[in-house]
């Protein structure tokens, strides 16, 4: 019996660069809760952003934020991992020096930008709707580094190999969508974050369903008895999963109707 459902956001529950949930999602989450099923928003996004996105049910779901660096349920931090400060500063300088690449540094309640363009600052504040702090020198940030991200408007494929080869032995490096690359502490991922929730609730992997589309979802999908890839996702992810679907909502509807148990 399914007891926990975790879904990636961008490219999965949110498709075609959508920045709001479909009208079906909130009613489905409420019904799933009535059935005793916990819904988990599992994303590279920050906690505050996810709470705004799921506003009507924000206190009824669990959160895997920052690609697994932060796990929260009912306001309680169940898990938090950070990047070593000295290492993080080296990475930030490297991103700053690379043409076409923008920095996003994730703290607990805000994301810090040292924007090279006004377009990037506008996007993060008004389109992605993050909590944003714009700072002249990113190295002046004093709080813990949860995640360091690279945004490349022309496509992160241009820089993925560069950052992976340079930093991949020191931090976990994953792509998130077509324009983003995230760096988090080693052994931090959505899969380990989901294990935290499974242990907290006493739920087994075979009682877990997960949805994803990209490489930052691999560990989460591998830790779910019911793994669903988006048909528009990466081929490797489709090959990894037991099932595939065009969208998340029809699968949730099948669970609610009893077609999937």
Description:
With 261 residues, this protein is α/β, with parallel strands linked by helices. Helix content is 31%, strand content 24%. The chain is built from nine helices and 14 strands. It is globular, with a radius of gyration of 18 Å.
Distance between the termini: 5 Å
Low-pLDDT ranges:
none
Which structural class best describes the helix and strand composition?
A: alpha/beta
The major sheet is characterized as: 8 strands, mixed
Mean pLDDT across the residues is 95
Using only CA atoms, what is the Rg?
18 Å
Q: How many β-strand stretches?
A: 14
Beta-strand percentage range? 15-25%
User: What global shape is seen?
Assistant: globular
Task: Describe the strand arrangement of the main beta sheet, using strand numbers.
Answer: 5-4-3-2-1-12-13-14
Number of helices: 9
The helix/strand order is: EHEHEEEHEEHEEHEEHEHEHEH
Helical residue percent band: 25-40%
Topology (elements, then pairings):
Elements: E1 4-7, H1 25-34, E2 38-42, H2 47-53, E3 62-65, E4 70-73, E5 76-80, H3 85-97, E6 102-106, E7 111-113, H4 118-127, E8 132-134, E9 147-151, H5 160-167, E10 171-176, E11 180-185, H6 190-201, E12 208-212, H7 218-222, E13 226-230, H8 235-240, E14 243-245, H9 249-257
Parallel strand pairs: 1-2, 1-12, 2-3, 7-8, 12-13, 13-14
Antiparallel strand pairs: 3-4, 4-5, 6-7, 6-9, 9-11, 10-11
Give a quick rundown of the structure.
The protein is an alpha/beta fold. The chain has nine helices and 14 strands.
Highlighted features:
six-stranded mixed sheet, alpha/beta, eight-stranded mixed sheet
């Amino acid at each position: 019996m399914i007891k926990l459902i975790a879904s990636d956001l961008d490219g999965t529950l949110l498709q075609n660069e959508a920045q709001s949930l479909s009208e079906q999602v909130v009613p489905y989450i409420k019904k799933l809760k009535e059935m005793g099923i916990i819904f988990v928003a599992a994303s590279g996004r920050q906690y505050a952003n996810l709470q705004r996105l799921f506003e009507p049910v924000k206190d009824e779901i669990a959160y895997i934020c920052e690609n697994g660096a932060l796990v929260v349920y009912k306001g309680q931090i169940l898990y938090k991992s950070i990047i070593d400060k000295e290492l993080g500063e080296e990475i930030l300088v490297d991103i700053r020096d690379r043409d076409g690449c923008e920095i996003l540094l994730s703290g607990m309640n805000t994301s810090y930008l040292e924007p090279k363009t006004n377009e990037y600052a506008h996007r993060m504040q008004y389109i992605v709707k993050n909590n944003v702090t714009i700072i002249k020198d990113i190295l002046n940030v004093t709080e813990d580094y949860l995640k360091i991200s690279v945004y490349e408007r022309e496509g992160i494929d241009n820089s993925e190999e560069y950052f992976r080869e340079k930093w991949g032995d020191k931090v976990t490096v994953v792509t998130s969508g077509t324009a983003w690359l995230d760096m988090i502490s080693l052994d931090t991922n959505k899969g380990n974050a989901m294990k935290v929730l499974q242990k907290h609730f006493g739920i087994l992997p075979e009682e877990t369903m997960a949805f994803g589309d990209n490489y930052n979802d691999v560990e989460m999908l591998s830790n779910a008895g019911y793994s669903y890839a988006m048909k528009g996702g990466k081929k490797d992810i489709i090959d990894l999963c037991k099932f595939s679907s065009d969208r998340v909502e029809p699968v949730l509807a099948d669970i609610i109707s009893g077609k999937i148990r």
